[in-house]
Design a protein that fits this description.
Organism: Allocoprobacillus halotolerans
Shape: globular
Number of domains: 2
Catalytic activity: beta-D-fructose 6-phosphate + diphosphate = beta-D-fructose 1,6-bisphosphate + phosphate + H(+)
Distance between the termini: 25 Å
Subunit structure: Homodimer.
CATH topology of the largest domain: Rossmann fold
Subcellular location: Cytoplasm
Structural class: alpha/beta
Family: Belongs to the phosphofructokinase type A (PFKA) family. PPi-dependent PFK group II subfamily. Clade 'B2' sub-subfamily.
Strand order of the largest sheet: 3-4-9-10
């Protein structure tokens, strides 16, 4: 997100078309509370802009706020557009996932209804890679690189013991298994882990799962398994679903955490061997020290392209990547009508999952591998990374 934000700021400076570039603190919710800062004042120097590009998370903060439909709450739209008018806003850029694109779609639609000339541009960002209309999303490549690297390091650690053991690695992905599939990128000449991969795009059978493990035990002692947090059984129920404990986020999405533990118990009861489960959790989305250079460069590039799209008078669109080829890898930035993208999910094509539903195909591997290429050089201070100052996000 910060790399795309840096791309926007950089392009606004280069074009000399903007007197101010305001950043909403905590998204639309922050703007409704009149919390914003002038980014041109803060990032006029290239060094500060580079630091922003290499900082994790989101410098401006985020929000879990779903913009209501205009017919249900017209006052919210009136307040927002009154603020736009006061600040003399010409272009509105919103970086995020599906719900953020829903916001862009709603605001651009309202703008048309009142004949507002403000241009609304969506910039995709989600580590889940589940946005429709784009080859992949900024943020995914770096998260995939972290998953693959962590899987490789887990495999090295697990290899030191000569005993029957199963390690289950739970990876983010409610309905789309892109990140879990990226664990296959850990395979090298001396490492075949993960031995099994389970994705939410296909039904999960506990009986088949145990049989898969039994088969792998026939030729090796130490088994490493990658599972998506959102895998479901044949009835469509999440493995960690329990009406007594299920929690949901502000958008109504089920907060899954526990799939690995469910499977850990199942495996121990069946095989009575050493079993552990590891949940990568939030680390998957904030490990800037192992970011993909391709990902950061593309994120910056799509931010620049968003500014050019606005200057070309486009509105109500989401910026997208179109892949021209895998080898050598080449993409271009384009855009699509955001109303045709918002609230839809891009899932792994079933033909990219093997017939036994416990691994990926070569086609999926070829799609993934270009996205994790290149390493990022970040600045250190006192032995730890030196990131952008986010003291403005603290509530007083």
């Amino acid at each position: 997100m910060n790399a795309s934000l840096a791309g926007i700021i950089h392009e606004c400076i280069e074009t000399k078309q903007y007197e101010h570039v305001y950043g909403m603190i905590n998204g639309v919710m922050g703007l409704l509370e009149s919390r914003y800062i002038d980014l041109l004042e803060l990032f006029s120097e290239q060094e500060a802009l580079n630091q922003l590009k290499h900082s994790p998370a989101m410098y401006l903060g985020s929000c879990r706020y779903k913009l209501p439909d205009v017919q249900d709450d017209p006052q919210t739209y009136e307040r927002l557009f009154h603020t736009f008018e006061q600040l003399q806003i010409t272009d509105f850029y919103y970086i995020g996932g599906n719900d953020s694109m829903d916001t862009v779609a709603k605001l651009s639609s309202y703008a048309r209804s009142i004949s507002s000339s403000i241009r609304f541009i969506g910039i995709p960002k989600t580590i889940d890679n589940d946005l429709m209309g784009t080859d992949h999303t900024p943020g995914f490549g770096s998260a995939a690189k972290y998953v693959a690297t962590s899987m490789l390091e887990i495999a090295y650690d697990s290899s030191i013991y000569k005993l029957n053991a199963v390690t289950i690695v739970e990876i983010m992905g409610r309905n789309a298994g892109w990140l879990t599939a990226a664990s296959a990128l850990a395979r090298t000449q001396c490492n075949e882990a993960p031995d099994l991969i389970y994705l939410p795009e296909v039904p999960f059978s506990t009986e088949k799962f145990l049989e898969d493990i039994r088969q792998v035990f026939r030729h090796k002692k130490n088994i490493i398994i990658a599972v998506s947090e959102g895998i479901k059984n044949e009835n469509g129920d999440y493995l960690d679903s329990d009406s007594k404990y299920t929690k949901r986020d502000a958008f109504g999405h089920i907060l899954h955490s526990g799939t690995g533990k469910v499977l850990e118990t199942l495996v121990y009861q069946e095989f009575k061997c050493k079993v552990r489960s590891i949940e990568l959790n939030v680390l998957q989305r904030c490990a800037m020290h192992i970011a993909s250079k391709v990902d950061l460069d593309e994120s910056f590039q799509i931010g620049q392209a968003a500014v050019q799209a606005a200057l070309s008078n486009h509105t109500g669109v989401m910026m997208t990547f179109k892949r021209k080829q895998n080898y050598p890898y080449q993409i271009e930035c384009t855009y699509k009508d955001v109303s045709e993208i918002a609230n839809l999910e891009q899932r792994i094509p079933v033909e990219w999952i093997n017939k036994d539903h416990n691994d990926i195909t070569q086609e999926l591997y070829d799609y993934l591998i270009p996205l994790i290429q290149g390493e990022v050089t970040i600045q250190y201070e006192n032995g730890i990374p030196c990131y952008s100052n986010i003291s403005h996000l603290r509530y007083k």
